[in-house]
């Protein structure tokens, strides 16, 4: 805390210094001035919390100083120390915020009491100021969210206007006499990559910056307001209610402001002038359509409206037409074949005169559906959660592949599509290799445990796989089902054991996993065409 002593007599200032235990009050800096003019310079430079001043001084007296402090330093607390017992001076002190009036010669006790009272008053006011600052910060944080929600609802629920009309007029200068309004949408889709990368970890800051720039133009001119659309992620909406015909030119002016501040421009979609508030939704939809139908292959304008959007009729191009070729390329595991197939698709795309965001979104959705279907086909033994995990390398929404200048880059798109398909092909090959390995592990297990009572369920439990999956994969790999494969092993071992004349048939049956001799004989004859006894006689005679 700082104290300023103002008196034209130095011995008075020295006396005040000696009469107070400054550390006791937390005062670390004591400043001095010999007149009101010098005091003003000190206040402007150092902003002391407590000011002790004489009333009668040359150049500028204490009366004028109190008046100046009341206007320019209202938070400071002032104690008057005067040699004049004058009621008019006392009244002036109280009128302009003085906390005490002490007469000279100075009484130490009175001085310390006055200082303590002034400090307590300053602390109390500072606590109130701190609370108000916190409330203001909180209100400033909440207020934009409040307007975002209110104005977003106004688009979908025009009837909400009547309740908010007075507040909108007071806060946003949206007059009740407004009968028409246009809606514009600021698009981040085609913003330059360098800017989006800069804000990649704090998109909220980018949106906040863009909204502030827009409102610097709109609010100052009282012609509209920009807000974050509550019902759509990362979309900035502008309501334009003044000078409808000049809206496109004004948006271009805002865009120039964005270029100056962020070194980039953005695309705006704008709807036609519609009845306010009843038809805001129609103008909003027109603005969305204008953005979705603009040609991403060229950059002729930054301001897009449905009236200016080219309506060229083009042959329908569906990504799903290439599904079979892409699926075969994935199964092949060949990078060359994948690149060749993607190239076929890109060659077809390049023939399009225009490519719109709507088309890109359609193709993206087609690819997402196909990829999910492929994953379910390729990895038939996995759960829905595992399917989602395999699809995590794809973003959940369309990311427009743009070059540094915000124009659609077919080469970047081709690279990304190729990367995605190669990744899936690699996962498929790894899975197939893993499946093959586990099936051979099962076959080896059967070779080593053929003499035990082994069931398909036992194997499924041991290898943590379903019985259906094991049966299908085993048949694919060995072209025979698992039970027949196990039977072949047992019969092969039985034929070797039957050559030993000292082993009874029942012993041989038990040694190859059959507890029932009759059942063993039945299976043996079915597979070998001879009973075990007949085989033994034939084999031994040979």
TrEMBL record:
Annotated compartments: Cytoplasm
Organism domain of life: Bacteria
Main location: cytoplasm
HTH araC/xylS-type domain segment(s): 440-538
Alphabetic keyword roster: Cytoplasm, DNA-binding, Phosphoprotein, Transcription, Transcription regulation, Two-component regulatory system
Residue(s) carrying 4-aspartylphosphate: 54
InterPro entries listed in its UniProt record: CdaR_GGDEF, CheY-like_superfamily, Homeodomain-like_sf, HptR, HTH_AraC, HTH_AraC-typ_CS, Sig_transdc_resp-reg_receiver, Tscrpt_reg_AraC-type_HTH
Record domain Response regulatory: where: 2-119
Protein name from the UniProt record: Response regulator
Provenance organism: Paenibacillus germinis
């Amino acid at each position: 805390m700082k104290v300023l002593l103002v008196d034209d007599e130095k011995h008075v200032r020295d006396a005040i210094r000696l009469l107070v235990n400054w550390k006791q009050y937390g005062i670390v800096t004591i400043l001095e001035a010999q007149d009101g003019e010098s005091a003003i310079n000190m206040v402007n430079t150092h902003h002391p919390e407590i000011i002790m001043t004489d009333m009668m001084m040359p150049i500028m007296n204490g009366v004028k100083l109190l008046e100046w402090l009341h206007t320019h330093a209202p938070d400071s607390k002032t104690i008057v120390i005067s040699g004049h017992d004058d009621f008019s001076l006392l009244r002036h002190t109280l009128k302009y915020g003085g906390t005490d009036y002490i007469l000279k010669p100075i009484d130490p006790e009175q001085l310390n009491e006055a200082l303590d009272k002034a400090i307590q008053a300053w602390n109390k006011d500072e606590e109130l100021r701190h609370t108000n600052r916190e409330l203001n910060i909180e209100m400033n944080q909440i207020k934009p969210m409040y307007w975002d929600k209110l104005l977003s609802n106004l688009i979908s629920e025009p009837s909400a206007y009547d309740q908010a009309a007075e507040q909108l007029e007071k806060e946003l200068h949206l007059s009740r006499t407004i009968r028409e309004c246009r809606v514009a949408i600021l698009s981040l889709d085609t913003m330059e990559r360098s800017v989006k990368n800069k804000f990649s970890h704090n998109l909220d800051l980018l949106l906040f910056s863009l909204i502030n720039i827009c409102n610097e133009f709109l609010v100052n001119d009282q012609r509209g307001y920009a807000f974050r659309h509550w019902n759509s992620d990362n979309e900035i909406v502008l309501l334009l209610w003044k000078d409808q015909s000049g809206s496109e030119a004004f948006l271009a002016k805002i865009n120039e402001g964005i270029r100056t501040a962020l070194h980039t421009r953005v695309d705006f979609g704008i709807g036609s002038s519609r009845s306010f508030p009843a038809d805001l939704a129609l103008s909003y939809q027109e603005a969305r359509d204008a953005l979705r139908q603009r040609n991403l292959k060229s950059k002729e304008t930054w301001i897009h409206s449905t009236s200016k959007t080219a309506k060229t009729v083009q042959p329908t191009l569906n990504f799903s037409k290439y599904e079979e070729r892409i699926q075969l390329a994935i199964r092949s595991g060949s990078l060359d074949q994948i690149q060749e197939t993607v190239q076929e698709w890109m060659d077809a795309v390049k023939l399009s005169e225009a490519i719109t965001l709507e088309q890109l979104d359609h193709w993206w959705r087609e690819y997402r559906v196909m990829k999910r279907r492929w994953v379910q086909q390729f990895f038939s033994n996995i759960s829905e959660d595992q399917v989602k995990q395999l699809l995590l390398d794809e973003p959940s929404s369309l990311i427009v592949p743009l070059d540094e200048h915000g124009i659609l880059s077919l080469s970047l798109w081709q690279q990304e599509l190729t990367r995605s398909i190669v990744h899936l092909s690699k996962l498929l090959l790894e899975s197939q290799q893993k499946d093959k390995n586990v099936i051979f592990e099962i076959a080896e297990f059967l070779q080593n445990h053929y003499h035990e009572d082994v069931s398909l369920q036992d194997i499924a439990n041991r290898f943590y796989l379903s019985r259906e999956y094991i049966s299908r994969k085993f048949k694919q790999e060995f072209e025979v089902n698992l039970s027949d494969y196990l039977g072949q092993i047992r019969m092969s071992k039985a034929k070797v054991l039957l050559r030993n004349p000292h082993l009874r048939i029942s012993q041989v049956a038990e040694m190859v996993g059959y507890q029932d001799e009759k059942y063993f004989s039945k299976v043996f004859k079915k597979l070998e065409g001879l009973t075990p006894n007949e085989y033994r006689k034939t084999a031994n005679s040979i």
